[in-house]
Amino acid sequence: MAPQRRGAPKAPEGSGAAERRRPSSTKSVRGPWDMRRKWLRAAVLGACTSLAALLLWGSLGGEDGITEVLALRSEVLPGRFIEVPCSEDYDSHRRFEGCSPRKCGRGISDAVITRDEARRIRSVAEKGLSLGGSDGGASILDLHSGALSVGKHFVNLYRYFGDKIQTVFSEEDFQLYRDVRQKVQLAIAQAFGISASSLYLTKPTFFSRINSTAARTAHDEYWHAHVDKVTYGSFDYTSLLYLSDYLDDFGGGRFVFMDEGANRTVEPRAGRVSFFTSGSENLHRVEKVCWGTRYAITIAFTCNPDHSIADPALT
């Protein structure tokens, strides 16, 4: 007869056998804690990943507070104008009826200057800047005053290089410069409903070349927020003609209007003209260029003929 299987004898309470069986119940208690630990690890990993992404985005030129892009590089804009209330900056300066800003705002157009004209005017900047260049990231060439960045200083290129200038620039270069200035002047006049003849070119009007080289002097620190009318009292209308393409030729370097509660950017595109009234209604800055080279020309206008400057001439 086969032996009968007996059940395991019940261990007395507190015995070692009972204690050995307890881990099974402990395991069931640990389960939720293990899940919490796994969730926490996943959350921390996700946060680290997000932080890394933000840092990478920042290194590519993105900045906090950017809430609206007024003009994408990929767009071709026949014209876009945004009116904003005028500041009181103009009240402390002599007013010129029919010219001093009563209507304030900012505009962007890709229809004023052609891409070919931008390429040609950029070559003028490149020829002039090849004679010098800042030790820092921002170099200036002013064909009106002759100011040229060289190392940590400025020289007057007409005096410093003398007759050599005749072999660097041509009369066609200077005529192109005048033609571009006139087109920008007319576009500003039309946008703000004033006569082009009431606007006068003023200083400083200059080419800029910006790269990612660290600043060496205060002149290289182009990225600080400022108001043109406060910095240069003669300015009434400011314009920028971009001569290179955002994300093709350089990273960072976007133009930022700093409005209350929101930043609004313009992405440079060769041939794009950005213009605006020069008061505190258009507080602005330029992002740091993080790679490549950004070319532009700042063309400033005043309503006061006492602050006017002439077009540059080769001879």
Automatic annotation (TrEMBL):
Show the stretches that span the lipid bilayer: 39-60
Tell whether Magnesium is among the UniProt keywords.
no
Q: Which domain of life is it from?
A: Eukaryota
- Please give an example of a GO cellular component term from this record: membrane
* Chain residue ranges for the region called Disordered: 1-30
Q: Name one Pfam family in it.
A: 2OG-FeII_Oxy_3
Q: Which InterPro entries match?
A: OGFOD3, Oxoglu/Fe-dep_dioxygenase_dom, Pro_4_hyd_alph, Pro_4_hyd_alph_FE2OG_OXY
Fe2OG dioxygenase domain boundaries = 203-305
From the UniProt annotation, give the residues forming the signal peptide: none
UniProt keywords (A-Z) are:
Dioxygenase, Iron, Membrane, Metal-binding, Oxidoreductase, Transmembrane, Transmembrane helix
Is-annotated flag, keyword Zinc? Answer: no
Task: Name the cofactor(s) required for activity, per the record.
Answer: L-ascorbate
Q: Which protein is depicted?
A: 2-oxoglutarate and iron-dependent oxygenase domain-containing protein 3
What's the source species for this entry?
Camelus ferus
